[in-house]
Task: structure prediction
Amino acid sequence: MKFSLPDLPYPADALEPLIDVETMNLHHSKHHGGYVNKLNDAVKSAGLKTSSIDELCQNITKVPESVRASVRNNGGGHWNHSLFWKILTPPGKGGKPSGDLASALKRDLGGYDRFKESLTEAATSRFGSGWAWLLVDSDGKLRISSTPNQDNPLMAGLVDLSGMPVVGIDVWEHAYYLKYRNRRPEYVAAFFDLINWSAVEENYRSCRDVASR
Ligand code: MN
Result:
């Protein structure tokens, strides 16, 4: 299959002033777009048969060695950014966790405030480029992790903690450097005011259902 760049679910300036329009445009069209193009090149050159980007990430250790690094980096990049755009919304419009998700945050991570502290710690302490995650593990529990580069929790066999990602925060400098310069903690703090909790809750329910199968 050929992968394509998904449209942003809002205008590129919708996350102003917390994420500026120039960063959004570059990040979406050049960075995410670049991952999609390179992923398609790798899939084509190896003649890979694949039905979805999820499947490709979950079976990363079975991808032929000649293109595995490229699929890991660019396929991971495509998957991660597709999630990232989806879970953001204009500042102050995202609500708060509710229902099953709020209960699970309390049960597994000690509640929203503790979750925020743990994800912030994972995001700010990731050395160099990478991501921090809220995920559902194979026991159906919410956990926090972080991965280097474009790895993600779907990549069983490559990551320390595998599972289904529910929230991902991009801590590559390209995600924040124009506005926040070297101040990653300020960008991470802003991220929490941009989370679309209804999208996250929907995502949580489908991840939990997969984990319980
Ligand atoms: Mn990025």
Summary: The longest strand covers residues 130-136.
